[in-house]
Specification:
- Helix content is 66%, strand content 0%.
- It contains five helices and no strands.
- Helix 2 (22-35) crosses helix 4 (50-72).
- It is elongated, with a radius of gyration of 21 Å.
- This is Nuclease HARBI1.
């Protein structure tokens, strides 16, 4: 599901106040990610409170993580972990280490 579509579904649950458009939420989060700093940088250009910006950043970050994590991150199975531990032990002569 696209991020904007997921945001539209989330907005249906929010009936109070003045909901922020999904596209604006994505743009706010992108500005925050690009700045690499606190929410204060983001709140000024869009005339929005720091609390709203923080909630938006948390919501968008969670949605991006939920969408990207499963297809990109693969946890090793028990066999792969055992092989990695054995290779590390053979290379370094450490016992009981996982290679971290």
């Amino acid at each position: 599901m696209l991020l904007l579509e997921a945001l539209l579904l989330c907005l249906k649950d929010i009936e109070r106040g003045h909901p922020i458009l999904p596209l604006l939420q994505v743009l706010i989060a992108l500005r925050f990610y690009g700045a690499g700093t606190s929410d204060v940088v983001t709140e000024d250009p869009v005339n929005m409170s720091q609390a709203s910006v923080s909630r938006i950043n948390a919501r968008i970050s969670r949605m991006v993580a939920d969408a990207l994590f499963p297809p990109l991150v693969k946890w090793p199975n028990a066999t792969k972990v055992a092989m990695t531990m054995e290779e590390f032990r053979a290379t370094t002569r450490f016992l009981g280490e996982s290679g971290a």
